[in-house]
């Protein structure tokens, strides 16, 4: 439920409008399907490692043990930054969604309020986080199902008057707008949308029977998310033309409306649109809640591994890592930049978060590739593995190739026009990762671990 809650949120309910506006309906679908395939292989890779060595803060631990301690250090801090920025994006989105009802109230006021609420939920106890996430996720999934039903009824004319059909897939330059560069840029938005599926790795060490629960969770969560995203994007693209001035990223001044809300307005359900907007708000809060949890847990886990300050490992009487929670909340304050510089900063934050997520995914693919090779090199039999990743080595290799391709080409428009501000924000995760990796490698003089020296022993956590 944690993975489901962290994955279905801002990327679907708000940023999907930007994807359709940028690359057209066909380009958006190609990007989401491509990322879906990539994530499938990543989740099976993670499942193989997490069932063999279940541990909290798994990405940093796996990279440290299977590749290079410097890579583990850089990946851990990168992943914390990823979810901390995602928290800022989600909190910013609360202000955008509230604009539907109160267009004249500054969005930062709502963002501040919800940031405080999310902080309190996570500060009380792990149970308060879990209970909140459970109910918010139920609302979220039910909303997507209702939206899909209404959407298809609208497309075929059962609701909302005359059938819309699929004419919007050929409107203007549709279905593909902007060519390959546009699709590559949407890959980042899609990546941001699918981020959260790997949360299973963060919680692996807390599972009583990881060999059973992790494979089951990976299979169920991924297919649900893929089904929801692909069908939802399809419905939105069929009902709303990519030229709609209301889609986020289209360049219009009124960008504060979710594509879900626009669809309900389009079919004449004005009151339902208001209800859906309220549900979207709870969904975004859910995603932010998961982001806060993931980032604080990663910071706590890194402290235990000695790659973050010891203070980050301190917990209160309820087991909550309060120092890590406070530091993460400070990053969440980036949300107020959107109130100063406008909606363009919101899209920049989405891009920055998406890129850090791809770096984390690259780390999973590289770690798994090395894990499997070391496993065989040290004389182990594949039958010893309780869960087998699909199509090895094709899966992790494909994930690595796609990851590098998207990271390089994620903002080609800014490269072409030398928009240094856009380049700085969109690509800032790359130099940050390189600096972290180089710092640790130079200071501790680490090297890539030979396959026969890779530590494949089990980990027993306190």
From TrEMBL:
<feature type="transmembrane region" description="Helical">
    <location>
        <begin position="420"/>
        <end position="440"/>
    </location>
</feature>
<feature type="transmembrane region" description="Helical">
    <location>
        <begin position="387"/>
        <end position="408"/>
    </location>
</feature>
<keyword id="KW-0812">Transmembrane</keyword>
<dbReference type="GO" id="GO:0016020">
    <property type="term" value="C:membrane"/>
</dbReference>
<feature type="transmembrane region" description="Helical">
    <location>
        <begin position="263"/>
        <end position="288"/>
    </location>
</feature>
<dbReference type="GO" id="GO:0015171">
    <property type="term" value="F:amino acid transmembrane transporter activity"/>
</dbReference>
<feature type="transmembrane region" description="Helical">
    <location>
        <begin position="138"/>
        <end position="162"/>
    </location>
</feature>
<dbReference type="InterPro" id="IPR004840">
    <property type="entry name" value="Amino_acid_permease_CS"/>
</dbReference>
<feature type="transmembrane region" description="Helical">
    <location>
        <begin position="108"/>
        <end position="126"/>
    </location>
</feature>
<feature type="transmembrane region" description="Helical">
    <location>
        <begin position="29"/>
        <end position="46"/>
    </location>
</feature>
<feature type="transmembrane region" description="Helical">
    <location>
        <begin position="174"/>
        <end position="194"/>
    </location>
</feature>
<keyword id="KW-0029">Amino-acid transport</keyword>
<dbReference type="InterPro" id="IPR004841">
    <property type="entry name" value="AA-permease/SLC12A_dom"/>
</dbReference>
<feature type="transmembrane region" description="Helical">
    <location>
        <begin position="345"/>
        <end position="366"/>
    </location>
</feature>
<dbReference type="InterPro" id="IPR050524">
    <property type="entry name" value="APC_YAT"/>
</dbReference>
<feature type="transmembrane region" description="Helical">
    <location>
        <begin position="80"/>
        <end position="102"/>
    </location>
</feature>
<protein>
    <submittedName>
        <fullName>Lysine transport protein</fullName>
    </submittedName>
</protein>
<keyword id="KW-0472">Membrane</keyword>
<feature type="transmembrane region" description="Helical">
    <location>
        <begin position="320"/>
        <end position="339"/>
    </location>
</feature>
<keyword id="KW-1133">Transmembrane helix</keyword>
<feature type="domain" description="Amino acid permease/ SLC12A">
    <location>
        <begin position="1"/>
        <end position="447"/>
    </location>
</feature>
<dbReference type="Pfam" id="PF00324">
    <property type="entry name" value="AA_permease"/>
</dbReference>
<feature type="transmembrane region" description="Helical">
    <location>
        <begin position="221"/>
        <end position="243"/>
    </location>
</feature>
<keyword id="KW-0813">Transport</keyword>
